[in-house]
Write a structure and sequence with these properties.
Elements (H helix, E strand, L loop, with lengths): L1 E4 L3 H5 L3 E3 L7 H11 L4 H4 E2 L2 E2 L4 E4 L2 E2 L11 E5 L10
Parallel strand pairs: 1-7
Antiparallel strand pairs: 1-2, 3-4, 5-6, 5-7
Pfam family, one: ThiS
InterPro entries: Beta-grasp_dom_sf, Mopterin_synth/thiamin_S_b, Sulfur_Carrier/Prot_Modifier, ThiS/MoaD-like
Protein name: Sulfur carrier protein ThiS
Length: 89
Amino acid sequence: MQLTVYGPLRSATGEKTVTLEFTGTTVADALAEFTAAYPRATPYLYDGETVRPSVRVSINGERAPLEAPVSNDAELTLMPAVQGGSTDR
């Protein structure tokens, strides 16, 4: 599986695109395997055991929910949680 990562995930992987041997079946499985391979990415994708609500994943260019099926030959894009800013206007 090929993963393209953005933001602070690049510092966790050392490159924009990485290849991951994927043995799962869903997007959630892919995130778990990605963070097992790149543990420094974990705080950007997870809040404890739960995937952060602001994490965005695309499969072959299409946005995908965590329960979406994904194959080993898919191309995933990971955009981590964005933190900071103000909600006051």
